[in-house]
Design goal:
Strand order of the largest sheet: 3-2-1-4-5-6-7
Low-confidence stretches: none
Shape: globular
Helix content: 40-55%
Mean pLDDT: 94
Largest sheet: 7 strands, parallel
Distance between the termini: 61 Å
Order of helices and strands: EHEHEHEHEHEHHE
CATH superfamily: NAD(P)-binding Rossmann-like Domain
CATH architecture: 3-Layer(aba) Sandwich
Number of strands: 7
Number of domains: 1
Radius of gyration: 18 Å
Number of helices: 7
CATH topology: Rossmann fold
Structural class: alpha/beta
Length: about 260
Protein backbone atom coordinates (compact mmCIF):
# COMPACT_ATOMS: atom_id res chain seq x y z
CA UNK A 1 0.00 0.00 0.00
CA UNK A 2 1.30 3.45 -0.92
CA UNK A 3 2.27 5.44 2.20
CA UNK A 4 0.16 8.45 3.00
CA UNK A 5 1.55 11.82 2.03
CA UNK A 6 2.75 13.92 4.99
CA UNK A 7 0.50 16.72 6.12
CA UNK A 8 1.19 20.04 4.39
CA UNK A 9 3.33 22.64 6.13
CA UNK A 10 2.47 26.33 6.42
CA UNK A 11 4.63 29.17 7.70
CA UNK A 12 2.54 31.84 9.44
CA UNK A 13 4.42 35.05 10.17
CA UNK A 14 3.51 36.97 13.30
CA UNK A 15 1.75 33.92 14.71
CA UNK A 16 2.52 34.47 18.36
CA UNK A 17 -0.50 36.61 19.14
CA UNK A 18 -3.75 38.10 17.92
CA UNK A 19 -4.82 37.35 14.36
CA UNK A 20 -1.70 35.37 13.46
CA UNK A 21 -2.29 33.03 16.39
CA UNK A 22 -5.92 32.50 15.34
CA UNK A 23 -4.81 31.69 11.79
CA UNK A 24 -2.18 29.25 13.04
CA UNK A 25 -4.69 27.43 15.26
CA UNK A 26 -7.34 27.28 12.54
CA UNK A 27 -4.85 25.74 10.11
CA UNK A 28 -3.61 23.30 12.74
CA UNK A 29 -7.22 22.26 13.37
CA UNK A 30 -7.46 21.62 9.62
CA UNK A 31 -4.49 19.26 9.69
CA UNK A 32 -1.71 21.65 8.62
CA UNK A 33 1.68 21.44 10.28
CA UNK A 34 2.45 24.98 11.41
CA UNK A 35 5.70 26.92 11.52
CA UNK A 36 5.07 29.73 14.01
CA UNK A 37 7.12 32.83 13.27
CA UNK A 38 7.70 35.48 15.91
CA UNK A 39 9.95 38.45 16.56
CA UNK A 40 9.36 39.90 20.02
CA UNK A 41 6.91 37.50 21.65
CA UNK A 42 8.72 34.22 22.26
CA UNK A 43 6.58 33.27 25.26
CA UNK A 44 3.37 33.79 23.30
CA UNK A 45 4.82 31.98 20.29
CA UNK A 46 5.72 29.01 22.48
CA UNK A 47 2.10 28.86 23.67
CA UNK A 48 0.83 28.97 20.08
CA UNK A 49 3.13 26.05 19.22
CA UNK A 50 1.92 24.09 22.25
CA UNK A 51 -1.71 24.71 21.33
CA UNK A 52 -1.07 23.58 17.74
CA UNK A 53 0.62 20.42 19.00
CA UNK A 54 -2.41 19.80 21.23
CA UNK A 55 -4.40 19.60 18.00
CA UNK A 56 -2.26 16.60 16.99
CA UNK A 57 -0.04 18.37 14.46
CA UNK A 58 3.67 19.09 14.40
CA UNK A 59 4.54 22.70 15.12
CA UNK A 60 7.69 24.67 15.85
CA UNK A 61 8.63 28.29 16.47
CA UNK A 62 11.03 30.34 14.35
CA UNK A 63 12.49 33.74 15.11
CA UNK A 64 13.21 36.38 12.47
CA UNK A 65 13.28 40.16 12.29
CA UNK A 66 11.36 40.81 9.08
CA UNK A 67 13.02 44.21 8.64
CA UNK A 68 16.35 42.39 8.19
CA UNK A 69 16.80 41.02 4.65
CA UNK A 70 19.36 38.42 5.75
CA UNK A 71 17.00 37.15 8.44
CA UNK A 72 14.10 36.96 5.98
CA UNK A 73 16.19 35.02 3.46
CA UNK A 74 17.15 32.56 6.17
CA UNK A 75 13.66 31.95 7.51
CA UNK A 76 12.21 29.52 4.98
CA UNK A 77 15.37 27.33 4.87
CA UNK A 78 15.05 26.92 8.66
CA UNK A 79 11.44 25.80 8.29
CA UNK A 80 12.37 23.38 5.49
CA UNK A 81 15.19 21.95 7.60
CA UNK A 82 12.78 21.21 10.45
CA UNK A 83 9.76 19.92 8.50
CA UNK A 84 11.42 18.69 5.31
CA UNK A 85 9.09 20.81 3.17
CA UNK A 86 6.95 23.95 3.04
CA UNK A 87 3.70 24.13 1.10
CA UNK A 88 2.37 27.58 1.92
CA UNK A 89 3.21 30.92 3.50
CA UNK A 90 0.79 33.25 5.26
CA UNK A 91 2.26 36.75 5.45
CA UNK A 92 0.42 38.05 8.49
CA UNK A 93 3.11 39.94 10.45
CA UNK A 94 2.79 43.68 10.02
CA UNK A 95 4.34 46.89 11.28
CA UNK A 96 1.56 49.38 12.10
CA UNK A 97 2.91 52.70 13.28
CA UNK A 98 1.25 56.06 12.89
CA UNK A 99 2.42 58.77 10.56
CA UNK A 100 0.65 61.24 8.30
CA UNK A 101 1.27 63.15 5.12
CA UNK A 102 2.79 65.95 7.20
CA UNK A 103 4.98 63.75 9.42
CA UNK A 104 5.98 61.33 6.64
CA UNK A 105 9.68 60.59 6.17
CA UNK A 106 11.90 58.09 4.40
CA UNK A 107 12.68 56.20 7.62
CA UNK A 108 9.04 55.44 8.39
CA UNK A 109 8.30 54.39 4.82
CA UNK A 110 11.36 52.16 4.66
CA UNK A 111 10.51 50.46 7.96
CA UNK A 112 6.98 49.62 6.79
CA UNK A 113 8.07 48.58 3.29
CA UNK A 114 10.73 46.25 4.66
CA UNK A 115 8.51 44.32 7.05
CA UNK A 116 5.11 44.59 5.34
CA UNK A 117 6.05 44.39 1.67
CA UNK A 118 9.62 43.27 1.09
CA UNK A 119 9.55 40.38 3.54
CA UNK A 120 6.29 39.05 2.09
CA UNK A 121 7.68 39.16 -1.45
CA UNK A 122 10.92 37.45 -0.43
CA UNK A 123 9.07 34.65 1.34
CA UNK A 124 6.93 34.12 -1.77
CA UNK A 125 10.12 34.08 -3.83
CA UNK A 126 11.65 31.51 -1.49
CA UNK A 127 8.58 29.27 -1.56
CA UNK A 128 8.59 29.32 -5.36
CA UNK A 129 12.28 28.32 -5.48
CA UNK A 130 11.60 25.52 -2.98
CA UNK A 131 8.69 24.16 -5.05
CA UNK A 132 10.79 24.25 -8.23
CA UNK A 133 13.51 22.27 -6.46
CA UNK A 134 11.00 19.70 -5.24
CA UNK A 135 9.57 19.35 -8.73
CA UNK A 136 13.03 18.93 -10.23
CA UNK A 137 13.76 16.10 -7.82
CA UNK A 138 10.36 14.50 -8.56
CA UNK A 139 9.36 15.01 -4.91
CA UNK A 140 6.20 16.75 -6.13
CA UNK A 141 3.86 15.41 -8.77
CA UNK A 142 0.22 15.88 -9.61
CA UNK A 143 -1.95 18.91 -10.42
CA UNK A 144 -0.88 22.47 -9.75
CA UNK A 145 -2.53 24.72 -7.21
CA UNK A 146 -1.52 23.09 -3.95
CA UNK A 147 1.19 25.64 -3.12
CA UNK A 148 0.12 29.12 -2.11
CA UNK A 149 1.00 32.43 -0.51
CA UNK A 150 -1.66 34.40 1.34
CA UNK A 151 -0.93 38.06 2.04
CA UNK A 152 -2.92 39.82 4.76
CA UNK A 153 -4.00 43.23 3.49
CA UNK A 154 -6.53 45.78 4.79
CA UNK A 155 -9.99 46.90 3.73
CA UNK A 156 -8.80 50.50 3.92
CA UNK A 157 -7.07 50.00 0.55
CA UNK A 158 -10.58 50.01 -0.94
CA UNK A 159 -11.77 52.73 1.44
CA UNK A 160 -8.75 55.04 1.83
CA UNK A 161 -8.12 57.66 4.46
CA UNK A 162 -4.89 59.59 5.09
CA UNK A 163 -4.04 58.07 8.48
CA UNK A 164 -1.16 55.63 9.00
CA UNK A 165 0.34 56.91 5.78
CA UNK A 166 3.41 54.66 5.45
CA UNK A 167 1.53 51.57 6.64
CA UNK A 168 -1.14 52.12 3.99
CA UNK A 169 1.46 52.66 1.27
CA UNK A 170 3.20 49.42 2.24
CA UNK A 171 -0.06 47.48 2.06
CA UNK A 172 -0.95 49.10 -1.27
CA UNK A 173 2.43 47.99 -2.61
CA UNK A 174 1.78 44.46 -1.35
CA UNK A 175 -1.64 44.40 -3.01
CA UNK A 176 0.01 45.36 -6.31
CA UNK A 177 2.64 42.68 -5.71
CA UNK A 178 -0.17 40.12 -5.38
CA UNK A 179 -1.02 40.58 -9.04
CA UNK A 180 2.57 40.54 -10.25
CA UNK A 181 3.55 37.56 -8.11
CA UNK A 182 0.48 35.58 -9.17
CA UNK A 183 1.64 35.93 -12.77
CA UNK A 184 5.35 35.50 -12.13
CA UNK A 185 5.14 32.45 -9.85
CA UNK A 186 2.46 30.53 -11.77
CA UNK A 187 1.84 27.70 -12.24
CA UNK A 188 3.84 26.53 -9.24
CA UNK A 189 2.55 28.96 -6.59
CA UNK A 190 -0.76 30.76 -6.18
CA UNK A 191 -0.87 34.20 -4.53
CA UNK A 192 -4.01 35.44 -2.78
CA UNK A 193 -4.80 38.49 -0.67
CA UNK A 194 -7.12 38.48 2.34
CA UNK A 195 -8.26 41.92 3.52
CA UNK A 196 -9.96 42.08 6.93
CA UNK A 197 -11.98 44.94 8.27
CA UNK A 198 -11.82 46.03 11.90
CA UNK A 199 -11.26 42.67 13.58
CA UNK A 200 -9.56 43.01 16.97
CA UNK A 201 -9.38 45.86 19.43
CA UNK A 202 -6.14 47.55 20.44
CA UNK A 203 -4.74 49.87 23.09
CA UNK A 204 -6.02 52.75 20.94
CA UNK A 205 -9.68 51.75 21.43
CA UNK A 206 -11.84 51.18 24.49
CA UNK A 207 -14.00 48.07 24.44
CA UNK A 208 -17.10 50.22 24.04
CA UNK A 209 -15.62 52.15 21.14
CA UNK A 210 -14.45 48.96 19.45
CA UNK A 211 -17.90 47.40 19.68
CA UNK A 212 -19.49 50.52 18.20
CA UNK A 213 -17.01 50.71 15.32
CA UNK A 214 -17.27 46.97 14.68
CA UNK A 215 -20.96 47.44 13.92
CA UNK A 216 -20.28 50.10 11.27
CA UNK A 217 -20.79 47.98 8.18
CA UNK A 218 -23.63 47.10 5.81
CA UNK A 219 -23.96 43.72 7.53
CA UNK A 220 -23.97 45.21 11.01
CA UNK A 221 -20.67 43.59 11.97
CA UNK A 222 -17.16 43.58 10.63
CA UNK A 223 -14.85 40.56 10.54
CA UNK A 224 -14.05 38.32 13.47
CA UNK A 225 -10.71 36.59 13.87
CA UNK A 226 -12.47 33.30 13.11
CA UNK A 227 -13.87 34.78 9.87
CA UNK A 228 -10.41 35.85 8.71
CA UNK A 229 -8.75 32.57 9.70
CA UNK A 230 -11.41 30.58 7.85
CA UNK A 231 -10.86 32.71 4.75
CA UNK A 232 -7.10 32.17 4.89
CA UNK A 233 -7.66 28.42 5.07
CA UNK A 234 -10.11 28.62 2.16
CA UNK A 235 -7.58 30.56 0.08
CA UNK A 236 -4.85 28.01 0.85
CA UNK A 237 -6.99 25.00 0.03
CA UNK A 238 -8.91 26.21 -3.04
CA UNK A 239 -6.60 25.40 -5.93
CA UNK A 240 -8.30 27.74 -8.40
CA UNK A 241 -7.83 31.09 -6.65
CA UNK A 242 -4.88 33.34 -7.50
CA UNK A 243 -4.15 36.98 -8.25
CA UNK A 244 -7.12 38.37 -6.35
CA UNK A 245 -8.06 39.58 -2.87
CA UNK A 246 -10.89 38.34 -0.67
CA UNK A 247 -12.37 41.16 1.42
CA UNK A 248 -13.62 39.92 4.79
CA UNK A 249 -15.06 43.00 6.44
CA UNK A 250 -18.85 42.86 6.57
CA UNK A 251 -18.82 45.33 3.70
CA UNK A 252 -16.90 48.07 5.50
CA UNK A 253 -15.02 48.85 2.28
CA UNK A 254 -18.35 50.03 0.85
CA UNK A 255 -18.65 52.78 3.45
CA UNK A 256 -16.71 56.02 3.60
CA UNK A 257 -14.59 56.64 6.69
CA UNK A 258 -12.68 59.92 6.92
CA UNK A 259 -10.27 58.57 9.56
CA UNK A 260 -8.68 55.26 10.47
CA UNK A 261 -10.79 53.26 12.93
CA UNK A 262 -8.25 53.77 15.71
CA UNK A 263 -8.54 57.55 15.39
CA UNK A 264 -12.31 57.83 14.98
Amino acid sequence: MKPASPAPVVLVTGAARRLGREIALALAAGGWRVAVHYRGSKEDATKTVADCVALAVDSELFYADLEDETAVRGLLPQVIQHFGQVDAVVNNASTFEHDSATSFGFASLEKHLRSNTGAAIMLAQALHAHVLARQASAAVTGPTGRFAVVNLLDQKLWNPNPDFFSYTLSKAALEAANTMLAMALAPQVRVVGVAPGLTLTSHLLSDEKFQALHKLSPLGRSSSAADVAATVRFALENASITGTTLLVDGGQHLMKFERDFSLM
